[in-house]
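Input.
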Amino acid sequence: MKIRRLLFALPALCLLLAACESPLPEVSYPELRFNHLPLIELNVARIDIVEKYHSPLQRPHVEHEIPLAPAKAMRNWANDRLRAVGSSGRATFIIVEASVKAAPLAKKKGLKAAFTLDQAARYDARLEARLEVETAAGLGKGFATATAARHRTMPEAVSINARDDALYNFVEGAAMDFNRVMTTNIDRHLTPFIRPK
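Output.
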């Protein structure tokens, strides 16, 4: 009788184990766009995007592991906000840095550690770009730069989905900081190359 019960219990146990091993559903994150913001119309015939930053693809760099890559956000910024409206000359949007680095943080020890939720890691994001403008025949040149840097910590025992949500929002915030700084500096340094509204 015990053997029969065991044989009936085995399939149920296998099903339970299979359910435990099933992967978490993948979360789809929206692509960060800036096309809801006003266009910056440059008096040039073309705009090129150049990525000088290349991720090392290894720790402490984690920009290739998170749901919103800073370089992609910066490319989208240039594509969505910059427009060439002239008949000659060119502008170049250069991505100088688009990094996110992760560093483990020291944990508390002893009895206090048992009652404390430590911050397990610190993330640092840095977005830097330069917009260069040159009119035809070298008649005029100008540039504007922008850098945005943010950091945040992540608690231990956080779920993968909660961590990815937090990192998406983290990079989104850095990208919006970049947008504000670059817009201000374009207005300040590239006014002669912008078509009046």
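The chain has one domain: 33-193.
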